[in-house]
Amino acid sequence: MKVEKFSRKKNLTELVIGFILMGNCFFLTRRNMEFGNSPNTLRRVMAPYAVKFEVENYEAKISPEQMAEFKEKYPLDPNSGEWKRAIEIWSTKGVEGEGIKDTHWLTLPADAAQGQLQKIIDFAQKHKGKYSDIVVIGMGGSSRPGDVIRGVLGTKEGFAQIHVMENLDEEDVSAILSKINLAKTLFISISKSGGTAETMALTKIAYDKIKEAGLDPAKHFIAITDTSRKQSKLMQFLSDNNVSQDNIFEHPELVGGRYTIFSVIGMLPAALAGQDVEQILSYARKAMYSEAKYILGKFMYDMETSGKIYMRIILPEELKSIGHWIEQLVAESQGKVDLSGKNRGIIPILERDFDSSIYTRETFAIRFRIGSSDKNDGFVKQVIDKRVPVWEFTVENKEEALGILYALEFATGMSGLMMKINPFGQPQVEIAKRNTDAMKAEILRSVSAGQTTQQAYNKKLGSFRQPDIDGGYRIGIAEGIWFYFGDFMRLEGENFKGFLKDNGIEDFKSLSAAKLYAWILRYSFSQRGKTYGAILPYAAEIPSRSEVWRTSRGILRQIGMQDLLGIGPLYEHSYRQYFMAGPDKGFFIFIVPTAPGNLKIPGEEIPDFTTGMQSALQALGTQKALTDAGRLSVRIEVDGKFDDKIEALKRFFAKVEAALGR
Fold first, then answer.
1. How much is the average pLDDT of 186-214?
2. Which string of DSSP letters, residue by residue, matches 414-461?
3. Among the residues of 1-116, which ranges form H helices?
């Protein structure tokens, strides 16, 4: 049913709330928080604070007493209430407690992006017309905000076009570099630690291109990083290239990557693209001072505790790029182990195929709409008619849609604390990174002993295959494409063989790759309770590949699984935390191009080491981490040029569809 709808009303209640909010502003000021130097600062802080939303199939009303309790427990002050209590609890938990103090995103819309707003605006005005393109180089929380600004707002006339370089896929990097005029391009390297592998690789590639063009890197690179880490790779790079301190922006203090959109990380690209960052922040304050964020937090908590862990995200085309941001925010924040040792959290899934059959008792939806209706209305009605809870945000424009993301940040953190988890760390992400680093160290030792990098790389790939070739766990799909299921068999081999025998199949070696894949899916769903599948290609999401991914997702829905697409290595900085520590209901399908490619990473310790090698090793490292954690996966390896294999992959997935009986 349709329930409470919040909107601006000139009445006594609003006046009372207004006085309360004025008090909050003075309270924050007394805490020595920077609100910027503009004489209009207080006016900006007191932006409209109503947020329009509707909820179907859920009772969203909260009593005044409950609302008062939520405001006391989850105030806008990061140093009090449950935010402070969480620090006291989780700070003693070692790596599980990392990031727990990173709650100062709570005040970013009201403190002028931690006092950097004026610097952001001045920098953009000073360089207006100087650059035709800006390239954001980052990963996860460092790149998502710029991508949201690019996809939702775009560029005003006379300002720079935004590009986001975050994938190691050679095709993607080459496509971006072919679009830009290097002489009029500004690269923004973003990394809090200053050592993110993908960010540094792409920064070095861009640097080489600038040098090859005879340009001065100091005039084409700026950065956002933690400047206190003087020995970080990024800080050393900036120093070596004489990048001015004026061109280095401080990463927001005590703010985790996925909560940075209203900081310099989101607002600097927006300003350089000519967008009104003060207006964006005013809409964020609208959400910041709204009671809607508390209701959304309780809604998310109620969904998770009732077993509705799949949050499907329904967006109009104009807001599509928000989806990836939400994926990272929620999945990396909530795939955690709670204080009692239980795997908890919501996993967000961007709605791509609009198939209402997959909306089950384990799902709910978050829907954004610009104006009173859009082309998704009919589909949403189908979902509502199935009694699925649907939270609908209605906004007047794109800037307001961005501002409402604050409410999602708040609700994600609030509901996480209600679940007794730490929503501000990502401990499991580091495990796969260590696996990849260990493999690279082995390759370096082999190269030091006299092997070529190509030989050492091939040897490392072989170490993941050879024992299972003998066991028959690697089957050809087509020329240069292999279906590898050794990780799955290591965990479920005897049980799976018994399952096949119960279904009249004496030897799995008698099955084709497509039929075997279909039986593994059936087993994982019916016997092991895997209710979502993740298609994980380490190849950028471009139109020529979209049909393959669409078919592969359809197969998951056909078997009864939720369908998730995570592009590698991007998803490693978003979904990977949930895959490792969220509820053990996932089945993971890695699609890994193994060709090294020709794009070498300058300055890499391993000579002639390429982005293709880095990407493949990351895939193997992540799969190993999942297997070590007891989580089920298979792998499709693609030798040679990936795009030459697209048609063969299409045929494979079509055969899987047929094997499942569609």
1. 94
2. HHHHHTTS-TT--TTHHHHHHHHHHHHHHHHHHHHTT--HHHHHHHHH
3. 12-30, 41-45, 64-73, 81-90, 112-115
